[in-house]
Task: structure prediction
Amino acid sequence: MADPQWRVPDVRVALVGVAIVFAWLWVGVSLYRVQVVESGQWAEYGAEQRVRSREIPAPRGTIYDRSGQAIAMSVAATDVIANPSEISDPAGVAQVLAPLLAMDVQDLETKLTGNAQYAMLTRRLDRVDALEIEKLMDDLDIRGVYFRDQPARVYPSEDFASQVVGFVQADTLEGLEGLERLYDAELAGTPGYQTDERDPYGNPILQGDSEIIPAVPGVDIRTTLDPGIQIAAQEALALAVEESSATAGWAVVLDVATGDVLAMATAPTFNLNDRTNVDRETFRNRVVTDQFEPGSTLKVLTIAAAIEEGIVTPDTEFTLPATLEIARKKYSDVGRKDERVMSVRDIVAKSSNVGTITVQQLLGNEKHWEYLNRIGLGRRTTSHIPGEVSGLLHPVKDWCDSVCGPSTGIGYRVNVTLLQMAAVFATVANDGVWIEPHVIDEEIFPDGTRTTFQPIERPVFSEETARTMRELLAGVVEGGTGRRAAVEGYRVGGKTGTTQKYLEAEGGYSDTAVVASFIGIAPIDNPRIVVAVVLDSPTGERIEGDRAVSLSYGGVSAAPVFAAIVKAAMHGLGVPPE
Amino acid sequence: MASRTSTSAESSRLVARRTRADTAVVTGHSRAVLALIPVALLLVIGAGALMSASSVIALHENGDRMYLFNRHLMFIGIGVFALLITARVPYRLYERWAIPIFLLSLVALVTTLAIGKSIDGATRWVTIGGVSLQLSEFSKFATIVMLAAIFSRENKRFLRFRGVFIPVAFVFGSSGVLLLAQPDFGTVLIVAGAGFAVLIASKAPLRWVGAMMALGGVAGAFLAQSAPYRMQRILSFRDPLADPLGNGLQAVQSLVALGTGGLFGVGLGASRARWRFLPNAHNDFIFAIIGEEMGLVGSLAVVSLFLLFSLVGVQLALRIDDMFGRLLAIGLVAWISTQALVNIGGVAAILPISGVPLPFVSAGGSAMIANLAAVGVLINLSRTQRTES
Result:
């Protein structure tokens, strides 16, 4: 065997061993670093790449009318999405899919072509149709077409109270207008999440952890809207707008005892399910967004305040000149050219400007303002009606000594919404107690609990003054400017209003355009509802018997709308005719 | 002494009978058993980890989650059979046949390049009779045998540099070029590690050994310069997050698996990396799955077993008086050790990822059989005794 001289020294063999030991020590230290020191960051990196979180859409709350019928509701629907990079034969797939999705074959093929990862094909397809298409895709072994459940918003009655209900953005379901917007957060609910672990190809890891946080459904909202009265209001308005060529018309019906808005309509209206080619102006809920000078209808408050303060009674008589001149501004009455003795009752019935100004001057600006303020003018209600404006009531210290009081007394220099005016008349109807008008009756939470809207109540004048005023208003219909508001079988009262339209753009009153209104109470002896109607810029004439009457007057164009709504409402509310 | 160990079968049986009473031989046998313990434990840990690591990929590609595991068991069986054979082959035969063995290995490498099949851009496999073989496993053994045969001879030429340079350059040069042509950077590293271990343990002057290692380094640097793109890929292990979806993908996923395992692991069979996040989880990256499922405790256990195996092997070499035997033993130990280091170093992102399997643990028939056969050779070596005893 080997010469001992050539025997390998042990130390050099040991050297190899030492090198191996050091190498393994280095590996051990490195493993400690990765698995202990840096463990957290690598584990986090791993979790990020495999834990997938998918949003579970929360069902959006339903908006009901007062009878419990859905005005706005969510239904199951499906978005159809493509991953073009997975589609090898875009033309073939387009041929199959286009008719099912009601799409143009060429357009669809373009969408399916290319290396993009995502192309939205159709939003909110009916769930049942989508399931059928999904099955077909499976059967034909077509890859790259995906289906994602997304609830859709549907408005079953299409144009029912469109401007009140509003609508959502079709894809995100974000509330854009109306109650849908104002109550967006409540209606939307809270989306849930489904978290699970996925492999790099997106397949669930069978042994992975998964967690489902269920979605919390949105709050349901029950409105105060009465379906029958709402529809009647919409139809009557539409007819009046058509007859008078008004640019728009709007109306509101209040339940006098509760402040509930039974109907709130704006014409022209639109289909909530199909808003294509609808003028944005049409989206406005003019009952609360459009302010105007009320004119004669506000005379009611001037007279009521004077009666409440004991300054006049219905029978107090005044000798009224043909023209009243205050600070070089001349006031006169429609259809009266001579000096005449008129009672307060007559002043109201004939809507006398001179008479009302005479009473206003006895009342005084301070007192007058107090009533205007107390009855809610110049302030938004807290009634949760989207888009509501406050109107404009100047503080009394800003009133000039000369024409400010008289002008305000006959309904100028003050901007109101129709809702505010309806509340003024409801105060008369409700024995002098103002109740905040509101469209929301209650919110119904997912757990079944409910919160009912509690309107603010504020006494403005006495029961007796209210009753007196109702008598005066009955006179307007029975023998004054509001004859066309009469409803067969029911005694009603109300007040006409016709004001020159103030044109913001021109900074002055229009020579031709008017705002014609009628606000009234029915039945006047046992009030149930207030109906307020406005027509913007009505023109033309109506032939009544042998004479033509101008539709520009509230008593001509707006009063019949009142009558039509009252008639429907009395039937709907079950008020028997006398 | 010399006559006793190199005679007929009859006399070697006599020797065996006589030496059974000899304490040196008894320790030699117990040492062989000692070397078998870490190997056996690594086989068990490996098979367990492989059952988990291979199940997802086997389910996807073979439709049976036990497919790769069953194959693995089969290869272990064949490997143990090979071990039993090599344990009985007198190691001196390798010395005698060193040159034919080495030339055969070169032929095997050329064959691989000529008719081998390419997978992921590397030509490493030759299919013979329906069985895919990695013939480079054989070239590792052949290179070690060749170097051990050369440097175990009494030869004054080694005192001069060219006496060391020429044989080393020839052996490394020929097999190294053929391996790099595949390319199989990992095997080159293993061959270099085992070869230099042989040189260090030999009597060739250390200064020449050091010079050869320096030359090797220069050659490596030259190769790196000649292919900067490949070098960039190889060096991407230093900052895998710079390209986590490209060059750094395997390193990042491997580190994610190890880091997720933490101290005690996510539990047996609970690996997430195996859900096709970590490519080659069942072969080259099985150590990451062990680290993920059993934590630092498990990964250090594996490291300790390799260390134990190496130390037992080195001690075994120390006990062998015969120079070829000693160099062969140290070469084989360095082979297994280097291969394990290169594999785990790649998994832990402290070395480039080179695609070598973890001995006794990874899936892969050629390596399993070769590694167990190498253990058999070590057992055969342990049966010799020191001349002094």
Q: What stands out?
A: Residues 317 and 343 of chain A are 4 Å apart (CA to CA). Chain A touches chain B through 46 residues (CB under 8 Å).
